[in-house]
Write a structure and sequence with these properties.
By secondary structure, the chain is an alpha/beta fold. The protein has helices at about 1-10, 35-50, 55-70, 70-75, 85-90, 105-110, 125-135, 145-150, 190-195, 215-220, 235-245; strands spanning about 20, 115-120, 145, 230-235, 250-255, 265. About 35% of the residues are buried.
Length: about 280
């Protein structure tokens, strides 16, 4: 009977139309060392280009990442103005891409599967292309949805997305940062959390990125994807949970521990076939 059911399911075709992949720390392991280098480069950018005190960068990065999804989104939210291309050139320009090696196993697997394969990353396109080439996967994906896709111009106005957070609150009075933004225009997020004010909320960011549900919905619309027919792979619990809320099937990569919002959890992207169940949607 089980064999009959399996044959029937296979005849009905694949459960998914598309596999949607995050890039960094998803298609390659965290121990590649790129993540640590990216963090250091972000800290250097904040000090050298924005005039932020070195002693504050660790705490500031944690707060911005936790509240805005990415450091760049957080920096723009609290008032820093800078060129996005320059930022990514600085942060990704000196990365040890040589640490990434061709992955023929993953390449063979991706090319053998009957799905659309797409990349959805918060990173810039130059970085995404370099990573895919180093991994030998540049021809395994139909397209790349990246930072420039969702943020095509340097926006100076905030989004009206309901996920964004309204701005109310005090601002600091430190000297003018090197980027020319007056300190009175910089929201002191460290002070905001050090001395919580129930009447104050965080400023909005003009940048659209994961884990914003709006960002995910927009990415799906651009690629013409049905979330109910799409399997989403990401190493971030927040991104996975946001994806689940918009209707995606989800796979948390980097751990076998399945958390709320994750339909599957795999130690490595090489285990992706464990998540591919054939048959009709349940």
């Amino acid at each position: 009977m089980e064999n009959v059911d399996r044959i029937t399911q296979q005849a009905q075709g694949p459960k998914y139309d598309c596999l949607l992949f995050d890039l960094d720390d998803t298609l390659y392991p965290l121990n590649s060392g790129l993540a640590n280098e990216i963090l250091q480069n972000i800290q250097d950018y904040m000090v050298e280009k924005l005039g932020i005190e070195p002693s504050k960068t660790d705490e500031l990065i944690n707060l911005l990442y936790n509240n805005y999804g990415t450091t760049i989104a957080g920096l723009r939210a609290i008032g820093y103005d800078f060129d996005y291309e320059e930022y990514y050139s600085f942060v990704h320009g000196k990365l040890p891409y040589e640490n990434l090696k061709p992955d023929p196993v993953l390449r063979s697997l991706l090319l053998s599967l009957p799905y659309r394969n797409l990349i959805f990353t918060n990173a810039d396109k130059v970085h995404a292309v370099k990573v895919l080439k180093r991994l030998g996967l540049e021809d395994c994906f139909e397209g790349i949805t990246c930072f420039e896709t969702l943020n095509p111009i340097h926006k100076s106005t905030v989004s009206d997305d309901e996920d964004d957070i309204e701005f109310v609150g005090s601002r600091n009075t430190n000297p003018t940062p090197r980027n020319g933004v007056k300190s009175s225009e910089i929201f002191d997020i460290i002070e905001h959390f050090a001395q919580p004010d129930p009447s104050a909320v965080l400023p909005k960011t003009p940048i659209i990125c994961k884990p914003s549900e709006h960002a995910i919905e927009w990415a799906l619309k651009i690629a013409n994807l049905n979330p109910q027919r799409t399997l989403f792979f990401d190493d971030s619990v927040r991104n996975i949970q946001a994806g689940k809320r918009v209707g995606l099937h989800t796979v948390l990569v980097g751990t076998s521990h399945r958390v709320k919002g994750a339909d599957y959890a795999v130690e490595s992207i090489h285990n992706l076939q464990e998540c591919l169940n054939y048959g009709t949607l349940t």
